[in-house]
Amino acid sequence: MDWSLDGLRDLVADGMHAVRDCDASALATVSCLLLLFIWYCYRVGREQAASSPRSYRAGVLVPSSASLLAERGDGEGPQNGYAYCHSPECFRCTAHSEGLNQRLYHNLQEYAKRYTWAGMGRVHKGVRDQGRYLASRPSIQKPEVFFLPDLPTSPYFSREAQKHDVELLERSWSVLLAEFEAVHQAFSNCSLSPSQGWKANSTPHGEWHTFYLVNQGVSVPQNCRRCPRAYRILGSLRTFIGNNVFGNACFSVLSPGTLITEHYGPTNVRIRCHLGLKIPSSCELVVGGEPQCWAEGSCLLFDDSFLHTAFHEGSVADGPRVVFMVDLWHPNVAAAERQALDYIFTPGR
């Protein structure tokens, strides 16, 4: 018997002719054929879905949820600052859930009751109108989580913006380089794993690895024990963001041939500082459309809430680009505002 779609259509037509003759047995036949037809459509639909695990959205190849789970395994797969990992431990990714503004306002009210409303004008304004601020920002600067209004805006900042901390980091260049070399041995062994403290970040080309001492305001004890001098240096910085989810400190390594996709940081209340440890030629950072190059032993300060990217176009012989990355407070965020933001964005709150 022909079980093709055309064959089933003919059988259904024959059954309908029999119905006209009021044949009781034909009615049963038609019912069976209809059930078979429904089953056939269901089977074809399942086979098509199984053969197409990926879908296209707006011209971009998008993995299905099943393929994402297969690629991520136990949830420890590559992640970065611009791809939402949906991890319950990642504030940046979970911040896009509903009710964020209500939680922020509740935290601000708790802070004001415990301490004071004095100096909270901009913070209150930012929390109250956060949705409007984020939606109305120009595409060149669009923080993904929190925007503090009325802050001076610039893709890059001079070293004078946080002079004390910049000079301290630059004086510590040799110390930080030595500790990086000590933990970098895993690269030469080709045996990177979470137990060694390194994280692999997804990139369209090349490899980007990070070794965090502080990740979203939380110290990583195992890594800090391996880099005790670097951790002490963090404690000596006056403007390091160490008590809220916007603060990070890590060694960041770009292998030759690596491109980081353009993305936005989570907030404009911080300045991201890169201390160049190993800087080959053909490496570049572009923030807000303005290119800059790192230099060994020097700090480069920028606002990562601007659209930014980085790349290393050198050869394998050039070696990796290595920076020590630290998040510092924006110089125009007042002390009272910093205290309130630490409270509102305390890790786990």
Q: Secondary-structure map with pairings?
A:
Blueprint lengths: L4 H16 L3 H28 L2 E4 L2 E4 L1 H8 L18 H4 L5 H15 L6 H8 L1 H7 L19 E2 L5 H9 L1 H11 L1 H4 L9 E4 L6 E8 L2 E2 L1 H6 L1 H9 L12 E6 L3 E6 L6 E9 L4 E5 L2 E3 L6 E4 L5 E5 L8 E9 L5 H10 L5
Structural summary, described in words:
This protein has helices spanning 5-20, 24-51, 65-72, 91-94, 100-114, 121-128, 130-136, 163-171, 173-183, 185-188, 221-226, 228-236, 335-344; strands spanning 54-57, 60-63, 156-157, 198-201, 208-215, 218-219, 249-254, 258-263, 270-278, 283-287, 290-292, 299-302, 308-312, 321-329. With 349 residues, it is an alpha+beta fold. Helix 1 runs antiparallel to helix 2 and helix 5 runs antiparallel to helix 6. The chain is extended and about 95 Å long.
